[in-house]
Amino acid sequence: MAPNSLRGGALEPVQGAISDYMIHMNEIHDNPSMPEVVIHEYKPFLDSSDVGSSDWALLAHDIKANYLHFDGFVVLMGTDTMAYCATALSFMLENLGKPVIFTGSQIPLCEPYNDARRNLIMSLIFAARDSIPEVCIFFHDRLLRACRSTKVDTHSLMAFDSPNMNPLATIGVNITENRNLALPHARGVLRVHSRMDTRLITMRLVPGFDDGMMRAMIDAATKTNLRALVLQLYGTGNVPTIKGEFIKVLADAKSKGVLVVASTQCHSGTVVMGRYATGKALQDAGVISGSDMTIEAISCKLAYLLGRKDLSATEVANLMNVSLRGEVTPEDAFEPPTLPSAYEKAMKKGKNHY
Fold this sequence. Notes:
Elements: E1 2-4, E2 10-12, H1 17-23, H2 26-29, H3 53-65, E3 73-76, H4 82-92, E4 93-94, E5 100-103, H5 116-127, E6 135-139, E7 142-145, E8 150-151, E9 160-161, E10 169-171, E11 175-177, E12 191-192, E13 200-204, H6 211-222, E14 228-233, H7 244-255, E15 259-264, H8 277-284, E16 288-289, H9 295-307, H10 313-319, H11 342-348
Parallel strand pairs: 3-5, 5-6, 13-14, 14-15, 15-16
Antiparallel strand pairs: 1-2, 4-12, 6-7, 7-10, 8-9, 10-11
Helix pairs in contact: 3-4, 4-9, 6-7
C-alpha cells in the first residue's frame, strides 16, 4: 500500500512495490539461515476487498503447480478479507503437506515504523519449517490456524485472533510451537477443489427485527437458487420464542432445499441448539448448528461442500459438524452445559433438596 496523491492521499495497492522492497531486504538475502525466496506478484495487484472466490481458486492452482518445487508458501495480502481467503484455501487444498502462511500488516511498508517487515520475515521462517503443514495466518507474534481465525481489530497490531483455539505457535525470544494442536501430516496426494458455490447469504439478527422483511428477503433469495443461509444468532443460538413466523420461514426455506446454519454473535463459545426452548425450536425446524466455527469457516466450508457436486444436501448438513481441516471442535469434546437451577442440580444427584 502507498498513498495516491490523485485520490487525496488515500492508500491503495501499488504494483511492484512489495517485490522491489523484498529484493532489497538484507535479512532475506544476506542471512544464510533464511530460506531462498522466489517472488511472484499477481497482476492486477488487488485490494483484499476485491479478492473473491475466483482469486482463491487461482492461488490454490498456483500452489498445486509449484508444490514440488518449494518447501512452503507465503501469501501477502490486505488484512480485511485475509481470514476468508486463508480459510477458503484450507478447504480447497486437500491433503496439504506443506505450510501455506498468510500475512500482511496494519501499517504499510512505506511507513518508517511498520509491522509488515517482521510479519513477512516470520512468515518466511514458518513456511520453511515442516512441523506445521497447514494453512495458517501469522500476525504480530502468533501463528493461527487459518480456518479458526478472524480479524478482530482495525487498529491494533494484534489484528487477528483464534477465539476457540490456542495459537499453533507464538514468538518471543524463541519460537514456541504447540505441535499437539497441529494437524497430522497428509498421507495422500495434494488435491485442489477450486469450485466454490457461493450462493449463500449471512444474516445477523437484532432484537425487534421485522418478520415480514426477513421472509421477503429469504423468499427472494430462494427464487435465485439460494443454497445456504447462515444466521448469526444470540448467545448459544437463540431467537425469540414469540417469533413463530420467523421459525416457519426457516422451515419453509429448509423444505425448498436451503441449508440453514446457526452461528453465534459471541466472539467465542459455541452454538448449543437444544439448550433452551428457543434454540430447540430452530433445531426442530431443521436448522444446523455451526458449533464453534467462525463465520468465515462456516461460509467457506459451505461454499466448499456445496461446490463439490458429489454430496447430497443431507451429506453436506452432516459434514458441517465434522472436522475436515481442524475448523470445528467435535461435540463430544465440549463440557456438558451447566444445570440452570438448584432443583435440577439436586434432581441430577437423585436428591429432592431445594
